[in-house]
Amino acid sequence: MILILTSPDDVHADAAEAELGRRGATWVRFDPADVPSRACLAVAVADGRVTRTLVRHADPDDCRPRVVDLDAVTAVWFRRPGTPVAPAHLDDPYATFVVEESRQFVGDVWETLDVPALPAPRPVVLRAQQKVRQLQLAVRLGFDVPATVVGNDPDAVLDLFGRTGGTLITKQVGLSAVGDELMRYTEPVSHRDLVHVDGVRHCPFIAQARVPKRVELRVTVVGDRVFTAAVDSQRSNHARHDWRRQDERNTPWSTYDLPEEVAARCVALTRLLGLRYGALDMIVTPDDRYVYIEINPSGQYLWVEEETGLPITAAVVDLLTEAAAIPGAAP
Predict the structure, then answer these.
(1) Statement to judge: residues 227 and 202 lie in one domain
(2) What is the CB neighbour count within 10 angstroms for residue 292?
(3) 156-165, 186-195, 226-235: which range is least confident on average?
(4) What total number of domains does the chain contain?
(5) For the CA atoms of the chain, what is the radius of gyration?
(6) DSSP reduced 3-state for 212
(7) What is the DSSP string of 50-104?
(8) Cα(108)–Cα(122) distance, integer angstroms
(9) 17, 91, 120, 271: which has the fewest C-beta neighbours closer than 10 Å?
C-alpha cells in the first residue's frame, strides 16, 4: 500500500491517484494536518517490539472511523503534507503546545515506516532545501553557477554589484512567505536601490549576477528520468526576471531537448542531495551556456505536464509502485 501525505486540495496527488487506480494499485491519502483535530495516530509497543502503527480518521462521506494499518505501507510520498492543527476549543499557549507536540510526533511516526520515500525521508528533504548546500554541490559537479553572495553583509553585496557591473538580482534564501506581500520574487537591483543597502543586515538573502536569458528551463528529475520544459520568458515584461510571473498567452511552455551531459549532471545533483525527485531551474544563455539556478525537492510539475504533455505523473507513479514492489527496499 502506498501512503500519500498531502493536503485535500492537492491536484498533483489527484492526478497520481487516477494513475494508480488505472494500474490497480492500492494507496491511502492522508493529511498530517488532521492530527490531532480530525484524526488519531498511534504507535503500540508490546513484547519488546513495535507491533503496529494506525491512523484513524473519518471519511467525509462516511461518519464511521476508518482504520489504516501503517505496517502495510510499502512506499510513502511526501507530496505537500500539512502541519498539525490544534483542536478549535484550545487557545494559546495550549494550542501552540499541542501543535508542536503533534508535529514532532507525526514526523517521528513517518520515520519509523522504514520504506522507500519520495522525494526522500523528511530530514533529507529539509537538508536538501538548503540553498547554500545546493550551490556548493552544483559547483562541485561542474555546473555553470552565477557569481553569488548569500547572507546579510551589505559590503559583500556592494562588492558583487561592482564586480557584475551593476547587473544583479536578489531573491529570498528559503521558502518563507507571510501573505503575498512578503513572498519575494526574483528582482533586479538598480543603482537607486543601493541607497538602502545597509538594510541588508536585517535579513539574509541571495544576490546573484544577472544571467542573460535565451530561454528558461524547468528540469524535472524522477529517479533516473529527466523531463525538460522551456519557456521564452523574455517575451513578457511580467516574466522577464522571474518566470513564476508567467504571462500564459505570451510565454507558453514547450518540451526541450536537454544535452545528455547536462541531464546527467541534474540526476547527479538530485542523488547527491539524497533525493529521488527534484525540480531544477536553469537558464540557457544567448551563447548556449546552461546555467544552474536552484533545485526544489518538492517542486510542482503538473502544470509542465499539462502544457507540454511530458508524462511526469506516470514517472512518479512508476517510482512509487516499483518501490512498493520491492520487499525490504531501502528508504
Answers:
(1) no
(2) 26
(3) 186-195
(4) 3
(5) 22
(6) coil
(7) EEEEEEEEEETTEEEEEEEEGGG--EEEEEEPPPPB--TT--TTHHHHHHHHHHH
(8) 10
(9) 91
